[in-house]
Amino acid sequence: MPTHNPGHAHGHDHKLEELRPLDGQAPCCCGGACEVAGAPALDDGPPPRAAQRALFRIEAMDCPTEEAMIRKALGSMPGVAGLRFNLLARELTVHHDLPDTVGIVAAIAALGMEAVPVTADGAARRDTGETGAWVTPIQAVALVLAVVSELAEWRQFAAPWLPIACAAAAILACGLPIYKKGWIALSRRELNINALMSVAATGAIVLGQYPEAAMVLVLFAIAEQLESVSLARAGKAVTALLSLAPEVATVRRDDGSFAEISAKDVAVGSAIRIRPGERVPLDAVVAEGRSSVDQSPVTGESLPVEKAPGDALFAGTINQEGELLATSTALADDATIARITRAVVASPGKEAAMKRFVDRFAAVYTPAVFAVAVAVAVLPPLVFGGSFADWVYKGLVILVIACPCALVISTPISVVSGLAAAARRGILVKGGLFLERGGSLRAVALDKTGTVTTGRPVQTDFESLTGDPEGNRAVAASLAARSDHPVSRAVAQRAGQDGIVPGHVEDFTALPGLGVRGVVDGNAYHLGNHRLIEELGLCSPAIEARLDALEEAGKTTVLLADARGVLAIFAAADAIRPHSREAVEALSRLGVATVMLSGDNARTATAIAKEAGIPEARGDQLPEDKAAAVDALRAGLGGKGFVAMVGDGINDAPALARADIGFAMGAAGTDAAIETADVAIMDDDPRKIAAFIGLSRATMAILKQNIALALGLKGLVLALTVAGYGSMLLAVFADMGTSLLVIANGLRLLRR
After folding, report:
1. Quick check: is 447 catalytic?
2. φ and ψ at 286, to 5 degrees?
């Protein structure tokens, strides 16, 4: 069996409370670093040491503009140690050493936003209901007024005051909130989208272009609403997981009757009843009954799983057939599905490299384009004698194009959609960095036990050398049933499956490192390994040859003997997972090399690898040997790809930490695996490694498409404007339309 390190030494510092530092951030299009729709954007630094933590819900905080303003306002406040933004849930976590949070609330209120403190109970479950209307009634009316204003100005079929009146009404309906935000931004010397739109609309009014000003503000307000709803729906794909677990549970009372109570009030150890068709309300263990359970919401398994007494149940899964009585094992907020949702939404992973590049690019792009707009408005009239009105108008059009919101939003919307698509399939990805790296994996190292194999030995061979075969099996089962050794358990389990009833054992004694002995029906027997038989002096060349052949095939042997000699040989092997070979073939088709690393002896490792179709196997690997093997694989790639390690998330910690991506297999229900792995496969299906790589490559393709869309369309409109063919209306459509295009393109990942 593999040698395991019982300690946890995972090299990635994945803490759910990891914070982004307050300084040193590259500004985005809105003047500050951003993470959109809950996309992971946490730095590697340790969390600040603050005495208190406060959680606020800020309804108006749904894009990088608001985050940047809040970060700047709170970043210099004495006593504030760290901030963590979750735009997906519109929540802000503040670590501080202040006596109260009044100053924090006041500072956010000064930005035109309301910060509502969230208690532990309030934060437990996010709203997964309606995400809001695509266009509000006020916006619809304002759009009609703006269109009437444009038509009246264009056709001049009405009184001169009509276009001005309609434009003014539209601006009052939709423009005042934008002007308020723009004024706050300008007063704080920030060039965010609200400031740019406010300047552009004001310039149009000064030039007498009232319909243009109205259309700019109305279309911008509508586009912001559409963007907010689209992002909320992307986030809903993840947060809706929580709604899968019912809010009530049927609990057995002390008098034996059942009553429905809130799932949040159910204590650990309570007896709960789950009828056919009902969802499991809490993580639990089956106490009575048998049924099949649909576990797809948690593990992504396509087929129901049979459940019997002693089997685990996960909150949110669906009971299919029989009634089950189960014992709850976790509180509602600690259920597996709640932990998965928190891990994805709060996503303590690292930022994707592409996102960091986009943020750095935006930090240079925004002021550069603003400078170009000023130059276009001023230089031609002064140097070449052009019309101030014409060139100022062109400068204003460039201002509308200037904010690269579509560019900045292109990465996180693709990442959060990819994370949600993976979570739906039972693949928990801990951040954009790992989703991005997955597409570049070129080598995967797989642990044997629990990854390629089930980790549960089963009896594969039985050979009776002398005496009654069935009698020998009964004696062996009697002794094996008293042993905790995995191979002994396999022998006892196989006997039970074949209807062999164990006998009574007297004078049972465990022989550490050797086996067991006992008296059955008045006769003394030994059941143990090769070394025990040698110490008893009962080995022979024939038995040696037979044991060598079995061990060559990767099997572990135990022998039954009495005082006269060896009676029977049993062999067991760690059963290979049903889909291991298929998973290795899928990785091969993707161009990913595989190697198996095992603590078992080299012969066993080679035999299992051959059965699974893995071309290379390394046995006798200690934890530090596996880590060194990962380094060797990376060196062999010559910097042309990444290396992954697949293990149990804890015992293979050194290798998992050394790999570019650490995969934990069968992580459902395991706190440590969910919280420490880079990627956690919630069931035991190794085929999902290839599925993750495919999803990663699709995510990166869409991400690149979005960046090309954002830059290409803005560049086209910019060129048209300089050439004299642009307009402010076209610029608004290009800017906001591009944002909506990249959102829609990113959301395509949710349909995978």
Report:
1. yes
2. -65, 130
The amino acid occupying position 380 is: P
Residue-level pLDDT at 10:
34
End-to-end CA gap in the chain: 38
The label of the residue with tokens 């069996």 reads 1
In 3D space, the residue among 541, 594, 589, 540 whose CA is nearest the CA of residue 564 turns out to be: 540
Query: Residue 174: which of 225, 132, 209, 208 has the closest Cα?
Result: 225
Within its chain, how far is the Cα of 95 from the centroid?
24
User: What stretch of H or E contains 313?
Assistant: strand 312-313
- The C-alpha angle 260, 265, 266, rounded to 5 degrees, equals 75
Average pLDDT in the chain = 78
Lowest mean pLDDT segment, chosen from 150-164, 262-276, 468-482: 150-164
Span 676-696, average pLDDT: 87
Residue 378 Cα to chain centre, angstroms: 50
Q: How big is the chain by its Cα radius of gyration, in Å?
A: 33
Q: 9 φ, ψ to 5°?
A: -135, 35
pTM over 0.85, yes/no = no
Whole-number pLDDT of residue 30: 38
In sequence order, what are the residues at sequence separation of 6 or more whose Cβ sits closer than 8 angstroms to the Cβ of residue 364? none
Strands (E), 351-481: 427-429, 441-447, 453-464
Task: Find the range with the poorest average confidence among 521-525, 543-547, 629-633, 652-656.
Answer: 652-656
Q: Tell me 334's DSSP state.
A: G
Beta strands 116-117 and 661-665 are: unpaired
Beta-carbon contacts of residue 623 (< 8 Å; ≥ 6 apart): 3, 4, 5, 651, 652, 653, 654, 655
Q: Report the alpha-carbon distance of residue 370 to residue 200 in Å, rounded.
A: 12
Relative to beta strand 271-274, strand 305-307 is unpaired
Compute the distance between CA of residue 406 and CA of residue 411 in angstroms, rounded to an integer.
9
Residues spanned by CATH 2.70.150.10 within the chain?
A: 246-334
pLDDT of residue 124: 36
* Closest to 93 measured CA to CA, from 50, 128, 46: 50
pLDDT classification of 131: cutoffs 50, 70, 90: low
Q: Is the separation of the CB atoms in 241 and 301 below 8 Å? A: no
- What fold does the segment set 455-576 form as a domain? Calcium-transporting ATPase, cytoplasmic domain N (3.40.1110)
Fold (CATH) for 246-334: 2.70.150
Full DSSP string of 7-49: S---SS---TT--B-SSSPPP-TTSS----TT---B-SSPPP-
Token pair listed for 158: 């009405």
- Of 447, 574, 678, 735, the catalytic one is 447
- CB atoms under 10 Å from CB of 273, counted, come to 19
Q: Sheet holding 642-647: strands in order across?
A: 427-429, 679-681, 661-665, 642-647, 441-447, 593-597, 616-618
Which residues of the chain form CATH 3.40.50.1000? 428-453+578-686
DSSP H or E run through 543: helix 541-552
Q: Distance between CA 37 and CA 89 in Å, rounded?
A: 8
Q: Which fold has domain 428-453+578-686?
A: Rossmann fold (3.40.50)
Nearest to 30 by CA among 52, 1, 63: 63
Rounded Cα–Cα distance for residues 675 and 685 (Å):
19
